[in-house]
Amino acid sequence: MKKRGIGIGSMFYGMGYGFSRPDISSAEVEICEDGSVIVRSGEVDYGQGSDTIFCQMVAEELGIRYDTIQLVTADTFTTPNAGPTSASRVTYVTGNAMVKAARAIKKTLQGVAQEILGEKDLLFSDEEIFSEAQPEKRLSFSKLAKECHLRGLQMVETAWHDITTKDVDPETGQGDAYATYAYATQLAEVEVDMETGKVEVLRIVSATDAGKAINPSNVEGQIEGGVAMGVGYALTEEIKLEKGYLKTGNLGEYMIPTSMDIPTIETHIVEVPIPSGPYGAKGVGEPASIPTAPAILNAIANAIGVRVTELPANLENLHRLIREKEK
Amino acid sequence: MLHFQFFNARSIEEAINFLAEEVEQCRIIAGGTDLIPALRKEDIHPDFVMNILEIDQLKGITEMDHAVRIGPTTTFTEMIESDILFRFFPSIVQAASSVGGPQVRNRGTIGGNIANASPAADVLPAVLAYDGELELQSKVSGKRIVRLSEAIEGPYKTRFLPDEMLTGIIMKKPEPGTRGLFEKLGRRNAMARARMNLTILLRLNEKEEVSEVRIVPGAVMPVARRVRGTEEMLLGKKSEPSLIEAASEVLAKEMVEVTGIRWSTEYKVPVLKNMFKRMMWQLLR
Amino acid sequence: MSNEQEKVLLRMKVNGKPVEVMVKPAWTLLRVLREELRLTGTKKGCEQGDCGACTVIMDGKAVNACLVLALQAESKEIETIEGLGTAENLHPLQRSFIQHGAVQCGFCTPGMLMSAKALLERNPRPTIEEIKRGISGNLCRCTGYTKIIKAIQNVHK
């Protein structure tokens, strides 16, 4: 007999390292004579898309195309220290450094543009700078860059951002733990085969507060990947040690979900901008997978009235709980 | 990986001649899905690896009047796509479909599944249910036919002679009206070893009594075999819920008789019974 | 006895071009592609056929290159990711993967694309279930497969 159930898991998660641990980043934006833009950052993009959003943010500030930016990352010889790519912190910390650096250089560009166009209120858009009031007064970004260089101005800015917190009281645990928190809730619909202990996760609906999704597609990608990790964590992934030897050291033994094991994943990106984040954004890397296992376990409890308290809820472990309940 | 010489056999004759020469030092490779990981782990140290995938005589599925012959280098994918197998041996098609993923199915072979004799094999138990026969050939001993039920010694150990090669799998066509079902339980829905699998063939007469039944549980015993006690309970009778329940108890008992009580028994006993009952009801519908 | 293995000539076709390379009998096709032919697009994941990162198409079928002995590829036609498309001339699958955000770290991607290509060659309009089954031999840890499936499903759009 198969039974279905629905469960919810909710979480909040501190961004960055917290607890007064140093949590800094820096970014560099340089504008070349021909108007090309070089951005440097110590962060590693290992597929989550930090490279993309750095370019998006700088492009947003300068009104240029994000795919023309030359990005140099993760090179200890040339890129300023941005802290590690971890703790769901890159968008939040390094993103801020990016925006700061871009705005600093924009100030320089603005000053020269105001002088050239003879107008004060200027917009940076579509690779041009133009007057709000009198749009015929316009200048191309590359021309403006050249003009700045001719004036011998500083055309590279490095910005620093620091989210290190003060810490909490060791007695009460109250205080300033993390700079900010991300929130996420997931709903899981499962089908439990009472006769074998096999669980199919049919559907996961995820609502994640990203503050502001700089790149919604990439945020979805993070959530979808995190959910798959959560499914494996809940149901099949297990590290087995035997006399100190790892028995599950390869992909044949350590079972992660295949394409035939994943649920339908519905992602809802909730945007409650936080003032301290770049454009209101915060991180989703880890939040993506934290509510999944709890949601699945709650769904199992809803389906068959069995509370799983040890992971993974694999065939043997779950079926044992089912048998114990039936007694 | 280790060092070995590679020999590409072009015919059965070439192959068995080579085996006769090199005997203990030679391992046969077809799809390599079991052999290559074993070579990597250095579980085995052959001097020679003989490729049999180029031997035409080992390929193909042939329908004869009363039986079907499957070449040992037939891949799982070829089995799945075979009209002949689908028509006469649907459980074998189901078993082949359950193995690994597309890449493994495109290379792994029925001959390899049998010769590797893993306790968790999927196709082997299904062939057993159809009472498959193996054609073995060697230079010294010539050709012989062995029933699969008598060909496996233990886990990963066949009763093939050291210089013998599997050259065909023959199965008699089942009686018309035979229903068959294969099910596999794995930890995930692809790329998973069987936690257990079960093949049941069933034929009823006009009075709805069981005239023939074959039951082969897989991945629960060192060597897959038919459970005769369970089968006898059902023969000649109408399958009532109480009978099926009683038969499932006998099935579990037969398994435990072979395996003894182990840590996994507390899981395998109830789940095997459940699988059996579920499949029986599906077949009786 | 010497541990040095004598090399043997292997002749096959890779991405439409005939190739001749000296190989040790114990080498796998994966090793030959990556290290002898410098076609490093095909990835080394688990080297035991469990992950699909090394998927190539051999004589029209998706296979794990780590489970093919190099000499078993004699006279065969091999298609690798390098033959699928180039940066200037993307294969529709590659374009679809990019458009749908189906690439994160990218390590599974070459294998995924080759499995997808093999699937679509046999079944040009697969259902979602058929797509899932078609890539079930390719593990991915980053994407949760969702956008990969969408990319394959919508390749014609």
Architecture overview:
The complex is a heterotrimer of chains A (327), B (285) and C (157). In chain A, helix 1 (50-62) packs parallel to helix 2 and helix 4 (216-235) crosses helix 5. Chain A has helices at 50-62, 90-117, 141-150, 216-235, 292-304, 315-326; strands at residues 2-14, 24-31, 37-41, 70-73, 122-125, 128-131, 138-140, 156-162, 167-168, 175-176, 181-193, 199-209, 241-242, 245-246, 264-270. Chain A has a four-stranded mixed beta sheet. A four-stranded mixed beta sheet of chain A has the order 4-3-2-8. With 327 residues, chain A is of the alpha+beta class. Helix content of chain B is 36%, strand content 25%. Chain B is built from eleven helices and 13 strands. The longest helix of chain B is centred in the C-terminal third of the chain and has 20 residues, at 265-284. In chain B, 51% of the residues are buried. Chain C is an alpha+beta fold and 157 residues long. Chain C has two domains: 8-83, Beta-grasp domain (Ubiquitin-like (UB roll), Roll), CATH 3.10.20; 92-153, [2Fe-2S]-binding domain (DNA polymerase, domain 1, Orthogonal Bundle), CATH 1.10.150.120. A five-stranded mixed beta sheet of chain C has the order 2-1-5-3-4, sandwiched between helices. In chain C, helix 2 (92-99) packs across helix 5 (146-153). The longest helix of chain C has 14 residues, at 109-122. Chains in contact: A-B, A-C, B-C. The B-C interface holds B 1-6, 8, 29, 31-33, 36-37, 39-40, 49, 51, 53, 77, 100-104, 106-107, 189-191 and C 3, 5, 8, 24-28, 47-50, 52, 55, 61-64, 66-69, 71-72, 74, 115, 118-119, 133-139.
Topology (SSEs and partners):
The complex is a heterotrimer of chains A (327), B (285) and C (157).
Chain A: E1 2-14, E2 24-31, E3 37-41, H1 50-62, E4 70-73, H2 90-117, E5 122-125, E6 128-131, E7 138-140, H3 141-150, E8 156-162, E9 167-168, E10 175-176, E11 181-193, E12 199-209, H4 216-235, E13 241-242, E14 245-246, E15 264-270, H5 292-304, H6 315-326
Helix pairs in contact in A: 1-2, 2-3, 4-5
Chain B: E1 5-8, H1 12-22, E2 26-29, H2 35-40, E3 48-51, E4 61-63, E5 67-70, H3 76-80, H4 83-88, H5 90-97, H6 102-107, H7 110-116, H8 123-129, E6 133-138, E7 142-147, E8 152-154, E9 157-158, E10 165-172, E11 179-186, E12 194-204, E13 210-218, H9 228-234, H10 241-259, H11 265-284
Parallel strand pairs in B: 1-3, 2-3
Antiparallel strand pairs in B: 4-5, 5-10, 6-7, 6-10, 8-9, 11-12, 12-13
Chain C: E1 8-14, E2 17-23, H1 29-36, E3 55-58, E4 61-64, E5 77-79, H2 92-99, H3 109-122, H4 128-134, H5 146-153
